[in-house]
Amino acid sequence: MIKGVLNMVRKSYKKTKTRIRKKRKNKFFSYAVIFIWVILLGTSIGIYSYNHSNKHTKMVIAATDNKNQNNRKSDDNRLNKQNVDNKSSKNDKSDKKDNNVKEKGSIKEKSNITDKKDSSIKKKEAISVVIDSNKKVENKKVENKNTQQSTTEQKTKSTTIENKEASKSKGTENAKDTYDNVKKVKFNAENKVIVIDPGHADHPNLEKEPIAPGSKTMKIKDGGGTRGTFTKTPEYVVAMKVAKKLKTLLEQKGFTVIMTKTDNSVSLGNVERAEIGNKANAALVIRIHADGAANASAHGASMLVPALTKCTAPIYDESKRCGKIVIDTLTKEVGMYNRGVVYRKDITGFNWSKVPVILIEMGFMTNEQEDHLLNSPDYQDSIAKGLADGIQKALTP
Ligand SMILES: [Zn+2]
C-alpha cells in the first residue's frame, strides 16, 4: 500500500519536473526568437536611416557652419559697437540720469558698408552712411570735376544704392527721408548771437519734462551735476566761472552773447534753456559742463552734439560741424586729451533746440589732476580762450 503510494508520488514528481523543463525550454526559445528579431529589426532600421540621413547631416553641418560664421560676424560687430559704446560711456556721467542707450551716430559713420547683410543693427548705420555719401557727392560736385572725382562719385553712388536697398528692407522710420525733407539750419556768418548755457544749479530740480517735443518720455530737469572728488567743488561752480570768462572773450571778438542765467541759484529746465536759444535765433548755443566717472583715471574733454533724429534733423549738420571745430581747437590749445564728438539723442536740451547746439564736457572732476586743474583760474581762462577761439573759427567765414 505504502509502496503504491510512494510510486505514485514519485511518478507525479517526475511528470511535473519534465513539464517544468519543457516549459522552461519553450520560454527560452520564444525569448531567443524575439531577441533575434529585435536585433535584426534594429540593424536594418539603423542601416536605412544612416544611408538616408547622411545627406541631411552634410547639409546640416554646412548650415551650422554658415550660422557660426554669421554669429562670429555679428559678435565682432557687437564687440566693435561695445568698444565704441564703452568709450563714449565714460563721457556721459555728467548727465547721470541718462539711460545707457548710446547714440549710434558715432558708430554709424565708422561702420563698414560691406557688413550690411548681417543684422538689423547695420540697417541704421547704412542710413547714415547714405547721408554722408550724399554729402560727399554734393561737396565734390561743387569743388571740381576732375576724373578722380568721377570715379569716387561712382563708387559713392553704388554704395548709396546698396545702402538704400539695405534700409528699404526694414520697414522702420527712415531717418534719411526725415533728414532730406527737412529745412536745415545753415551756417550764417551774419548771425553773431551766441547763447552760453552754464550747466546745473546749486540745487537739483527733480521736476520732469518731455525729453523731446511730442514725446511721452519724461526726464528730470536737473540731476544736479557732478562734483570734484578731491576739491569737492560742485560742477555748476566751475561751469559758471568758465561761462562768464567765455562771455567776455566772445564779446571782445564782436559776438553778441546771451547767458541763459548768471546766478547759480537759478534752476532751469532743459526745455527752458533751449527756448532761450530758440528765441534769440542763436548762431550757436554752447552748454558748459564738466564730466564725472566711476573710473578715476577717465580724463579729457568731450563734445556732445545732437544725434540725427526726427526733431534734431534741422540742426544736426551745423551742430556737428561746430562741435568738431570747437573740441579740436580747445583740446589743441589747452593741451588736454580729446575724447571726440559724441552724438546724443537723449538730451532734452538738444531735442528742443531749433538752433545749432553743442555741449562741452571740459574734463573729469572725478580725475585728481583734472579736478584740481578745473578749479584753477588760469586753467579756466585757457579753457574759455580755447572755446572762444573754436567758436570764432566755426562761425567766421
Ligand atoms: Zn553737467
TrEMBL record:
The keyword Glycoprotein does not apply. Keywords: Hydrolase, Membrane, Transmembrane, Transmembrane helix. InterPro entries: MurNAc-LAA_cat, N-acetylmuramoyl_amidase_3. It comes from the Bacteria. GO terms for molecular function: N-acetylmuramoyl-L-alanine amidase activity. GO terms for cellular component: outer membrane-bounded periplasmic space. Residues 65-119, 139-175, 198-226 are annotated as: Disordered. It is an enzyme of class 3 (hydrolase). The chain crosses the membrane at residues 28-50. Residues 87-119, 162-175, 199-210 have a biased composition (Basic and acidic residues). Residues 145-160 have a biased composition (Low complexity). GO terms for biological process: peptidoglycan catabolic process. The keyword Transmembrane helix applies. CDD domains: MurNAc-LAA. Residues 274-392 form the MurNAc-LAA domain. Its EC number is 3.5.1.28. This is N-acetylmuramoyl-L-alanine amidase AmiB.
